[in-house]
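Chapter review: from sequence to fold.
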Amino acid sequence: MEDLLALLRAAGEPTRLRILSILSTGEMTVSEMTQALLQSQPRISRHLKLLADAGLVVRFPEGSWVFYRLNETNENYALVDQLIASMPPDDQILLRDRERLDRVRAERATRAQEYFAANAADWDDLRARHIREDLVEAEITTLLG
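The token string follows.
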């Protein structure tokens, strides 16, 4: 019962509902969320902490970035999914969030393409600087049994 109440308290705020809505489209960084929602980084981070404490979102580092996504392993995820599905599809705030989110994702894709285009010739060398490929393959083999 307490977990359910914590979920409802965490989700029951306009900015946090907007965060859940945009995260339903995929993982994002805090920076991307600030651009999509037009809110400050401290404000988004505070809301994310409350959502994470309630088990609604998970945080995961990837390289020098930290991404957030919906916690689909939460026992009450079906309720979160229902909340998101219940949001009016013609809500102007949510529509503008999605428009900005589309631009943010397009910028992310452009930056990734530019990075790989600039580094493609040296890609094998760059990868070798971070971790030896044979160690990665050995670990994968071990994990797969």
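Two observations follow directly from the output. The chain has one domain: 2-119. The mean pLDDT is 87.
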